[in-house]
Amino acid sequence: MTPTLILAIAGGVLIAAGVYLLLERSLMRILAGVMLAGNGVNLLFLVSAGPAGDAALVGADPETIADPLPQAMVLTAIVITLATSAFLLAMSYRSFQLEGHDEVADDVEDAIVRRRAEADLSSEAYVDISDSDSESGGRDDSESGGRFERETGSRAEDEEAR
């Protein structure tokens, strides 16, 4: 295997490990995931830029000069990753001060979506609200902003059985 292929595989492994850590609930693991994924992307970007060459100085042979654009973009990406890491580190520290741990809590909207999915209310999410309240049953569905349809027949019996 050539050194370029080994570096490309190493970049892919860094990105895969970073994505795995990004899916965790601890902010410190998310921070490590951002750093690993950023380093993996930087490594792949430099590998894809081509072979190494001389420094881009005035008077150098144009045939042997390396392209400076990928290097400048990687330097920019390093600065962005540093800023993101500092922000996540500060957020993790503040979370630890306030709550005693750095785990990300469940979002309120996620809980509402989970509750609606368990109750199977997604089929009633769209109801034409141009009708009057008496025609649509008049019961407000505050979670979806719509209206429930009047429950009749087997659907009402299913609700009563629960």
Which spans have pLDDT < 50 for at least 5 consecutive residues? 132-136, 144-153
Number of helices: 5
Outline the biggest β-sheet: none
Q: Ends: how far apart?
A: 63 Å
Name of the CATH architecture of the largest domain: Orthogonal Bundle
Structural class: mainly alpha
Order of helices and strands: HHHHH
Highest CATH level, the class of the largest domain: Mainly Alpha
* Cα-atom radius of gyration: 27 Å
Give the percentage of residues in beta strands.
under 5%
Percent range of helical residues: 55-70%
By DSSP, the count of extended strands is 0
Q: How many distinct domains?
A: 2
Instruction: Give me the CATH fold name of the largest domain.
Output: Helix Hairpins
Basic shape: elongated
Mean pLDDT: 78
Written overview of the protein:
- The chain is mainly alpha-helical.
- It folds into two domains: 3-53 and 65-99, Helix Hairpins; 108-161, no CATH class.
- 58% of the residues lie in helices and 0% in strands.
- The protein has five helices and no strands.
- It has helices spanning 3-22, 27-48, 68-99, 108-119, 154-161.
- The radius of gyration is 27 Å and the shape is elongated.
- The N and C termini lie far apart (63 Å).
